[in-house]
């Protein structure tokens, strides 16, 4: 994988649109368990809490955009993780963990929903919670860089280079 000075405009657009859609789907998920049970029993999955099609298709969009992001990343490369030594190592593995969860969460949702498989339902919800915790830590670290360390890490994800 190549290395460059900053993220491209496409990478920045993908980062923020994926983050927004993940947050939306996390907040718009109450009632999905009930919707899934109803669809397994052959009834209508729509219930007063949720229109499951919205959760399902926003989630599928996340999966497609993450795969697109890998393609863009492979073609245009990424800047080296910020910092040095152990910090750089931590950023590198933190981002890998985020990517793994960004694929696993919607993929497990799709296996559950389209496959009608109950066994993956809880893991989907559990990993969605893990994703929000890791992404929350990630956002907190980004803000720490900006307001405490006063470096340009956030600017890297705002301005294309
Ligand atoms: C980034 C994407 C996603 C996030 C953050 C997310 C988040 C969540 C959360 C937090 C729940 C638990 C809701 C609750 O029971 O209170 C849930 C449930 C569920 N989601 Fe997703 N989801 C995503 C993508 C998907 C996709 C792509 C599908 C299907 C194609 C899907 C299908 C389901 C189903 C079927 C359940 C119910 C599981 C159960 O029976 O407990 N999700 N999701
Ligand atoms: C669900 C929410 C989010 C997810 C899944 C996510 C995911 C990621 C991933 C995987 C990377 C690594 C990019 C790469 O090198 O290929 C990244 C970079 C970055 N993210 Fe996020 N992010 C989220 C939200 C946020 C938020 C809210 C902020 C700011 C407050 C933020 C700030 C950054 C910054 C500054 C970088 C660049 C780090 C660097 O240059 O080394 N992210 N994000």
TrEMBL record:
Residues 7-159 form the Cytochrome b561 bacterial/Ni-hydrogenase domain. The chain crosses the membrane at residues 12-28, 54-72, 97-114, 126-149. GO terms for biological process: respiratory electron transport chain. GO terms for cellular component: plasma membrane. Its cofactor is heme b. It comes from the Bacteria. It is a multi-pass membrane protein. It is found in: Cell membrane. Pfam families: Ni_hydr_CYTB (PF01292). GO terms for molecular function: electron transfer activity; heme binding; metal ion binding. Keywords: Cell membrane, Electron transport, Heme, Iron, Membrane, Metal-binding, Transmembrane, Transmembrane helix, Transport. Belongs to the cytochrome b561 family. This is Cytochrome b. It comes from Amaricoccus solimangrovi.
């Amino acid at each position: 994988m190549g290395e460059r000075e900053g993220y491209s405009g496409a990478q920045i657009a993908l980062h923020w649109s994926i983050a927004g859609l993940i947050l939306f789907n996390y907040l718009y998920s109450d009632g999905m368990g009930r919707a899934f049970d109803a669809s397994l029993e052959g009834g209508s999955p729509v219930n007063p809490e949720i229109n499951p099609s919205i959760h399902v298709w926003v989630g599928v969009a996340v999966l497609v955009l993450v795969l697109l992001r890998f393609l863009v990343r492979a073609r245009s490369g990424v800047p080296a993780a910020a910092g040095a030594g152990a910090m750089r190592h931590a950023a590198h593995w933190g981002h890998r963990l985020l990517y793994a969860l960004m694929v696993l969460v919607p993929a497990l949702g799709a296996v559950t929903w389209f496959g009608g498989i109950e066994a993956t339902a809880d893991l989907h919800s559990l990993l969605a919670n893990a994703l929000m915790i890791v992404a929350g830590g990630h956002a907190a670290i980004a803000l720490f860089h900006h307001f405490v360390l006063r470096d340009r890490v956030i600017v890297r994800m705002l301005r294309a280079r």
